[in-house]
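Service request form, structural biology core

Requester: graduate student, group of Dr. S.
Request type: structure prediction, single chain
Budget code: on file
Notes: please return the result as structure tokens.

Sequence provided:
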Amino acid sequence: MTRRMETVFEASRPGRKGYALPELDVPAVDCRTALGKACRGKPPRLPEMAEVDVVRHFTRLSKLNYSVDEGFYPLGSCTMKYNPKVNEVAARMPGFARLHPLQPEETAQGAMKLLFDLGAMLAEITGMDAVTLQPAAGAHGEQTGLMLIKAWHESRGDAKRTKVIVPDSAHGTNPASAAVTGFETVEVASDDEGMVDLGSLEAILDDTVAALMLTNPNTLGIFEKHILELTEAVHRAGGLVYYDGANLNAIMGKARPGDMGFDVLHLNLHKTFGTPHGGGGPGAGPVGVKAELEPFLPSPVVVHKGGRYTFTGKDERPRSIGRVRSFYGNFGVLVKAYAYIRALGPEGLKEASEMSVLNANYLAKKLGGLYPLAHKGHCMHEFVLNGGPLKHETGVSTLDVAKAVIEAGFHPPTIYFPLIVPEALMVEPTETESVETLDRFADAMEEIVAKARSEGPEAFRGLPTTTPISRPDETTAARNPILRWQFGE
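Core staff response, request fulfilled:
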């Protein structure tokens, strides 16, 4: 059993330090004289540790963080794929890494060209007319896209459009982003095939609908075969159609949302375009639009004129929604995405999508005999298993299965999502995993099911045994979070 790891505050000992400062070579200044009331009344309570203890603490901590560089990470809808290290090398090039965001434009022409070209590449890949690279992550991109939709309707004097339609299988960020932007969300049901029910959609479309937010392929890993009918129905009602780019990894280079009738979209560069995800670094959520929404894009915009690259001024974009991010977004992430696209090229992007779909269908075929698939037939890049029958038969829940997957040495799939599937296990293998890895995962899942049937739920209660915390009280943690260290007096 792995023992609980101390925090830096628990490991702190009075009087210890891991640094040595040089002698003061400037005049000493009394903080209270210089800053007055703004000066802290007493020193901050920082940990006191020797250098060796600090290094060992954070090294041990890093080893507790399971990552895609360590093993298989089949989180459905999150596209946790391997990140090529050449992209990291590109982002660390001095001309990119040592830029200052306030330095003159003429000294950053290479970086501005990269931004300009990356926007054009993403526009071509998605079938959009213009792209902003400012948003810092996917959900931030959603909010930006919805702000653009609101601005477009208001510019037409159509302020009564206050509703955004989201499918019952939508990502949770969709209704959240709509609410943050000031919209009311309206849910539309899925049909028996797991796709948006066209009749249900038609019934709720009226002149108060601003947009439909849709992921295609959807959260169940199914391509919406009626996508043209869906987008046309929304457009007839005067609304716009927003594309959640979380699942673009399934169709990148093969199909374009802009050709399906989408007006606005966001992309997750940390999902589709090979940049780190989660703890591996910041994300980026570029937003693409059709031509009629281009004037509303966040400012500034990189343009090429007079033989040089420059940022547009405020007066040049009077209808812009303004900045949504300091400077021009998470630049290092944008460099990595640019390197990824240039390395793969058009054919490589297509192959990545093809392999993603192939891997998902291969694994779905192997696991479909253990758990019922939420929906029959071929999937795209991900699939959802129904853990309900196993729980009914053995008492072993989807949470128990996830804990057993950790014990087997893998990161578990997404669980209990989408909500329309009971005891859901949502699996996305991505294109970067080998058949040997997929087979090992399938074997582990088969062993877990066999154990559930032979030993029942009691065999799972103490799993996993290899982590510092086995079964945290997630409900209490969510309702009563402890977000800072509490000093004992």
